[in-house]
Structure formats: structure tokens, C-alpha cells
Amino acid sequence: GFIVCWLPLVCAEVTITLKELDCHFFASEAIPRTLIIHNNVANTQICQLVWTTSVMSAAVQQGKKEVVLAAQEKKEVDIVLAMPQAESRVTLEWHIIVSPQAEPPQKLSFSYEVFPRQSRTGVQGIFDKKRVGIYDPVGKIEGLFKQENIRYASIKNSLSLEAFQGDLLLIANNAVTDKNEPFFSVLMDKVYKGISVIFLEQEVMPAQSAFPVLLKGGSATKTRCLAFGHPLFDNVRQGDLQNWRGDGVITRSLLEKPHKGNFLVLAEALDETGQDLKGALILEIPHGKGRLLFSQFLIMQKFDSEPVAGILFENMIHYALRDIKAHDIVALFVHE
């Protein structure tokens, strides 16, 4: 999922950049790309643009364009890349040769990850022996489960939560408000007795002192995984956790890292220079016989377009339904 060459290509007369940051796509998609070409000199330039795409050296697509630039003109050149058919994950290489007038040819290369279109959720069959409840006022996750004919209990309030006898509760994105404190008091008791809970991306967290997590502001396009090898990151690479579809953003609000207690930060947010933003993106907190998993990745917001969102969603469900064993209990961290 890394862009191999994303910095501006600068030669004596022409500057070239790529507008889009996203780099994970589904098989057979048509992906628009925009090259921004800037003529730095005070006379007209003619640039020859030749490009090819390939998978493991096998050609997928090729094309060429002539770009005429007036003095000091900046022009956007639109190219549509055809993602190949794929039954498993593949890497598409995009190679561009730019030949400005009276200048040696210059080369750019970009690398994109292409994923097969599989099940919408990837969790069919997992609930044959497990019971899941969904707290989803908007209905996004419930719609996915209905589409896949997956059985679930619809949790509407603290009373239905109290009556729920299951293994996993999914808290849908932006389902938390500052008005549902009784609901989360019941939830914490249920976790203590043994269920697992997954919180997908939220704009607020429960405003009660007993709840273990707070949010802090800040969006990010990059992250650092702190636990590769953890089941949450099965089939996930470091480059998969940055530059998600559309605007490249992976989160719009970060989790505050707890100052003390039993917790594990699995991924943290980085700024554009790679510096730690002091906020977590995935946090695991054991509580009694159960566990809470918090993710601020835009999994539901970008579920339909970002392939990695679906992978993380599936991994979180599989992991949350594992029995908690002694070796799953994470270390005690105390901040002085």
C-alpha cells in the first residue's frame, strides 16, 4: 500500500505531483488519478507522457498523452487506471515516463494494493455457535448482517441489553451519545461478567467516570501498528493502515491513551512527518471476564470503498469472540 514515489518530480523545467493519496482498491475498479504538471519556465513546454501498469511484470494497461503547457502554467492530467481481476491480493505497479521538451526523460513509480471483492462482512458461519448483539441506532451494521443472513439480536436500550445473553456486542459507529449513561453502566457490568464489546468509530464517549476511555481531537492519514502478529492484524501490512480511500484519512478522532490500568495500545496515530500524535487508534482493555475493543479507524464510514476496513472488521470480530485466557491479559501500565 505504499506510494513508492510521492514527492514532486522536479527537473529544470517541469514539476510533477500526484493529487490522490489513497492506494487500496478492489479488483476490476476504474480508478481516476490526477497528475499535476507545472511548467516552471517562461516559455511554452510540450511534455510527452507515457505510462504502463503491471502485476508481477505482466502488463495490464498502457497509455500516452501529449501535454502542452503555456509559460508558468499548471495543468491537471486525468488518467483512469483499470484495476485487474484478482482472486487474491496483488500489487499493481504504475510506471510513468515524462519527457519534457529538451530535457532527459524522468520516471515516476507508484504501487497500489488490489483486493478481491469477497463477502461484505467475511464472518458468515462464525455465529453458528456464538451470539452477537448489535447496538446500532442508524442501522448500518444491522443492514450488513441482514444482507448476509447473519443472526443477531438488536439491542435498543438498557433493558434489552440487560436481557441479552450473548458473546459479543457491537457498538455501531457514532452510536454513543451523552444521553445513554444507564445503557453503558449496564454494558460495563455485562463485560465484567464475560461478554466482549467492540466500539467502532465514535464522535463522543460515555460521560461517566467509570468508563475507561476518552476521546481527543485530531484526524490522521497515517498510523503505526504496535502489535504486528496480533490477531487483529491478520492479513494486514503496515502500508494498509494509511491513506484510505477518498481523502486518505483513516480517523477523525483519536483515543486518549490511558494513564494507568490494564490496557494495550495496538495502533497509534502519526502526523504527516511520522511523529506520534499521542493518540491511539485501537485500544484493548480487559475488564473482569470480558474485554473491550475500541477502534477509531473509519471502518464503517469507508466500509463500502476501502478494502482494509473490511479486513479489520472481520479480524476484530474473530478476535473478540476468542475465549480470554491468562496469556491474553495485558500488562499493567502506570503513568507517573
How does the overall form come out from the CA principal axes?
elongated
Mean pLDDT: 88
What is the H/E string?
EEEEEEEEEEHEHEHEEEEEEEEHE
Instruction: Give the beta-strand count.
Output: 21
How far from one another are the termini?
Answer: 38 Å
Strand content: 35-45%
Q: Evaluate the radius of gyration.
A: 23 Å
Question: What's the helix and strand layout?
Answer:
Blueprint: E1 9-10, E2 14-18, E3 24-26, E4 30-39, E5 45-55, E6 58-69, E7 74-82, E8 90-99, E9 106-115, E10 132-135, H1 140-147, E11 153-154, H2 158-163, E12 168-171, H3 181-193, E13 196-199, E14 215-220, E15 222-225, E16 251-256, E17 260-262, E18 264-270, E19 276-287, E20 290-295, H4 307-320, E21 332-334
Can you walk through the features of this model?
The protein has helices at about 140-145, 160-165, 180-195, 305-320, and strands at about 10, 15-20, 25, 30-40, 45-55, 60-70, 75-80, 90-100, 105-115, 130-135, 155, 170, 195-200, 215-220, 220-225, 250-255, 260, 265-270, 275-285, 290-295, 330-335. The protein has about 325 residues and is mainly β. A hairpin with a 2-residue loop joins β19 (about 275-285) and β20. It is elongated, with a radius of gyration of 23 Å. Residues about 1-5 and about 330-335 have low confidence and may be disordered.
Write a brief structural summary:
The protein is mainly β and 336 residues long. 12% of the residues lie in helices and 40% in strands. A hairpin with a 2-residue loop joins strand 5 (45-55) and strand 6.
